[in-house]
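Hey Z.,

So I finally got round to the fe (iii) ion thing we talked about over coffee. Here's the setup:
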Amino acid sequence: MTKRLLTLSLVTLLGTGLASAQEQVVNIYSARHYPSDAALYSQFTQNTGIRIQRVDADDAGILARLRAEGAASPADVILLVDAARLWRGEEEGLFQPVKSATLDAAIPAQFRSQPGANGATAWFGFSTRARLIVYDKIKVKKEDVDTYEELGDTKNKGRLCLRSGSHPYNLSLFGAVLEHLGEQKTEAWLKGMVDNMARPPKGGDTDQIRAVASGECAVAVTNSYYLARLMRSSKPEDQAVVERIGVVFPNQASWGTHVNIAGGAVARHAKHPANAVKFLEYLASAQAQEHFANGNNEWPVARGVQLDNPALKAMGGTNFKSETIPISVVGKNSVKVQQMLDRAGLR
Ligand code: FE
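And the result:
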């Protein structure tokens, strides 16, 4: 007992020592939920000597926490995994716009917020993920599901599985469709998808893929990295899932596949703003970008970074046509989309 107490107090002392005033630190609130990210963070500390203190929550939880904490918030960097949420944080003034020649040079304008006064940027995308259609190769013909529009077509009645319509990944997809198709067609499309459901929306993206493989659904929608994770898995049950399903990069003959971003910003009340900018600049570096590609099976955003990921290659993801609308309009459309979802009854 005494020994244990002694150990505990030593740990406490060490902890206090590490947190001394001279020490360089950056506080990150992160919605990235990928185990492979440990290497991403430790590499930054190795490069810079800046220690990372991280709070993990989902996008909505992080925004709520920032609102509640106000000026007292210890957050320096905010990492979110959806364009509409990044846009929301910007709208609410939760971020501190950044001017960085490094970030401006690395991140294409399509993948960051619209420039504000004096050309500063509220948030940057650092990786992209495609929203793909997966289908049952036995029951469904690829040409019946190779566009998002067809998910709402009567020919796919009783086949479709979706996670919640108001989940950020779907809200952003619908916001993109709204931009491409306009209000009337988009609302009719949403209603069509409700009519086509094989079951009420539930679960995450991986659950939708598995439900297609098990025969419960015949068509579903998923972010690309969940699929790549299954493809790279050595578990026989995951390999069986991959065997059964077909994969489509939708809308290759029209406006291209919808891509969302994972991105970051400097918190409005950051106590270590210089370290925060350093961290964002690190995320745009070749080292971090390669991590997004090979660790979490995302596509790098920074210019000039090469992709070498067998699973992305295998699913046809090295040379597909992605949409070219600025990702910031997807956020702007999300408010309108939520109202359309309520009218369409897509929960
Ligand atoms: Fe995710």
